[in-house]
Automatic annotation (TrEMBL):
Protein's name according to its UniProt entry: ABC transporter
Recorded superkingdom: Bacteria
Record carries keyword Flavoprotein: no
UniProt keyword annotation of ATP-binding present: yes
InterPro entries referenced in this protein's UniProt entry, alphabetically: AAA+_ATPase, ABC_transporter-like_ATP-bd, ABC_transporter_ATP-binding, P-loop_NTPase
Record keywords: ATP-binding, Nucleotide-binding, Transport
One GO molecular-function entry: ATP binding
Organism: Leptolinea tardivitalis
Residue ranges of every copy of the ABC transporter domain listed in the record: 6-259
Amino acid sequence: MNDSHIQVRNLSKTYRVPVRPEGLRASVGSLFHPTYDDIPAVKGISFDVHAGEVVGFIGPNGAGKTTTLKMLSGLIHPTSGELTVLGFEPWKRDAKYLKRISIVMGNKSQMLWDIPPMDSFRVLGEIYNVPAGQFKQTLDEIIELLDMQELLTKPVRNLSLGERMKCELAASLLYRPAVLFLDEPTLGLDVSMQLRLRKFLADYNRRSGVTVILTSHYMADVTALCPRVILIHNGSLMFDGELSSLARDLAPYKLLRLTLLEVTSMESLKLPEGAEITEREGLGLSIRVPRADAPDITANLLQTLPVSDLTVEDPPIEAVIDRVYTGGSL
Ligand SMILES: Nc1ncnc2c1ncn2[C@@H]1O[C@H](COP(=O)(O)OP(=O)(O)OP(=O)(O)O)[C@@H](O)[C@H]1O
């Protein structure tokens, strides 16, 4: 055993879905002899998460992120592999486990629509047996951090998407879970509400030490909150490490940004093999070069071009992610 909050080893999930053939005859036949398709959503992933970490779980649509979060939170059973969270096997749905984790899904609501959030909070406080003093203290802290005092008495159905998400987050934290799973918490929110929720999550993590696993299609959520990212693609783990090294590990090229001393015509620019101009504006020039050749090409350019300034950079994280997501060559 190690001191991880979450341990995942060779975790897989294959969904089995009935195949519905076309035509009445075939449909009736399938009632008696059903056939199934196996959809491998998660294929043998392994990772550890330590107490207090905020990990971004990223990948293109259909990569297996929600499936993994559902296994971690005990909503679905893994097909194979090992998985413990806080020492529990989530799929057993032990009441002691469920009191220590929380899951928030941007596209699902756990609030009761017809009553004000405060009443839902009280119900949740009762369900989770939160002592009255702790309930008040926790709620006061969250209300202040989320600046949501005026929302407490309005029926949930009258709240905006962003206001409702504040309530969802507050509800998920009332019993002070040790692990928080967030699936697209900023989905559909405007930029200022996204910023506010990011700030809340960062503050709350610092104050409480809660472990967070977050999926989001907004890279800004991930860059603002997650020092570490796990990238999955087609159900397999492609990268697990610091966000800052993702570009270095996954993009096999570097960007040279040059400022020339004088305007030089395109024809007279003789670039070494493998180098490709990606941007040109005035005296500025961006050149994409294979990572391994960057030192040689840089030396060559300095000798052959009138260069006043030169930097060597990793490509922007968004560009690397975009290429992974769209299946383009890196
Ligand atoms: N209940 C289900 N039954 C059958 N197949 C499913 C089920 N849920 C998900 N899948 C399939 O499993 C794969 C992974 O889906 P999952 O929802 O985990 O991906 P995701 O990374 O969360 O995607 P997104 O970013 O679009 O939310 C997809 O091919 C999806 O169609």
